[in-house]
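Structure tokens please, single chain.
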Amino acid sequence: MFSHTTIDLIDCVLAYDINKQKYLFIGPGIFQVLGITAKQLHQNHNLWDELINKTYLPCIKEHIKNLTPNNSIELNYLINTPQHTTKNIHDKKSLIIDDVTGHRVLLSVIREQPLLKGHSADTIEKLHQQEDAGLSKQLLNSLIDSQTNFLIRIDIDGNYSFINRQYLKVFGYKAKELLGKHFSKTTLPEEAHLCEGVFIKCLNNPGKVIPLLHKKPDIHGNLHDTEWEFISIVNENGEVCEIQGVGQDITDKIKIEAEIKSTAQKLDSFIESITDSFFILDNKWRFVRVNTAFEKVSEKNRDELLGQVIWKVFPSLMDTGFGRAYYDAKAKQESIKLMEYFAPLNKWFRTTVYPSAEGITVFAKNVTYEMRAQEEVLWTKNSLEALINNTTDQIWSVDAETRYAYMNNAYVKHIEQLTGVAPQKGEYSNRHMGYPRQLLDDWKVYYERALKGERYTIISESIDEQTKETVYYEINFNPIYTTSGQVMGAGCFARDISVRLKNEHELLSQNKRLRNIASLSSHELRRPVASMLGLIDIIDKENLQNPENRQIIDYLHIVSTEIDEVIRLIVDHTFTRTD
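Here you go.
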């Protein structure tokens, strides 16, 4: 573990585990060099610090604090031993990492150096103080160079007198390229007036901080946005001798701010463009943000809303589902969704409430039209259901698997009367246990035709169980399509046409009788009528006593008898049913 340092036997060697805060090793030379024993140091870890001259201790601790792994530092200082002896100490400290435990171990190799001949302890102390001052200066420079900020100094002529490492690294220069050169060398010509103005202000206002924001080019011509604070430095006579500037590259910061601003603008545009009402309430229930849609739906402009407590603007809101949702979301820190009617506005809203540490955010969509449309759809559905169920016609449908999808009351009642078993929605229509197998097979074929897209009508015949009369039904089969044009089922409509068929049969019978009448009229009646008309024409009207008239009258009597018989025959055909 101690292979990093060469150790003499007369040295005092100490190994201190910083992680465990304990000494791992104390060499045998401790008493000879420090005047204390290993046991005393184990018992009191601060004993060594108590030996060091108080003027050195803060600086020594600072050096140890800034020591990095696998590096070392050499220190010289005075100690006062318990034996009241002042010793000049050389202390080489190294920070190493233990290979086994990974702990940080501070290794100190301490040896006594004799006081130089002719130098008193006070003189030695002054030399050490000077040496320590040099080390402190190195430490300060190290801190300056480790900064991520820029640090520059400019003399009263405007020439660079100091530039830290970060400035040189970012802008690509070497110190010798800028030191002694005027600051205008690293200034854009179009922004030179800004830098000159700050320089003059610093000269005229000692001790005042002057800000500057400008673009600065690097050695390759790339521009960097920089932010600075300049202040003048005065000498012991109060005269300005230099101007010091501390700055930073804010190029990325500006880009991020621009992106944030752009994102915020896009968000603002989105919020203002959405049709949903949007608003934000702070923890005191005050409006801090509203969008145009909320202004329209609330019938209030944002000047009337922003900064106002929601319960004062909308007092009736508190005792509604909205108010309870706002309180619950804030109390439980959970998002809440609800659908609620707001009577003062006569509108329905679908609302989502999002809680946050700063308050709540609310999105509310006006769904009044949708709700009324749903109500109309429901009313239409109920009306249609009532209409369908108030008819004696049978209406039903099956899905693609021939399962019952819908049945009106007339159909259910009819099937129950026929089979004794009421059909149920979702059951397979062609498996109804009340039907004979052959009839089920026939209906399976009927459904399959409709499910293949065929639209057709059949006449079904059955026996009424109560009257024992034959009943006839006209059944329409219609395929039911999806919006994409696929057959999803079959709709069926059955109407009792027994009366209609009976009436049609009566009409056919009546038509037959009328045809017979027409036939009789055109043949049997026309002949005697023609004979009568001929006999009348030959009557001697001037001499009614003409003997021939008597004979004509006899013939007329015979013809009248024939006409009467034909009329009786027509009457018989009119009121007597002939099939």
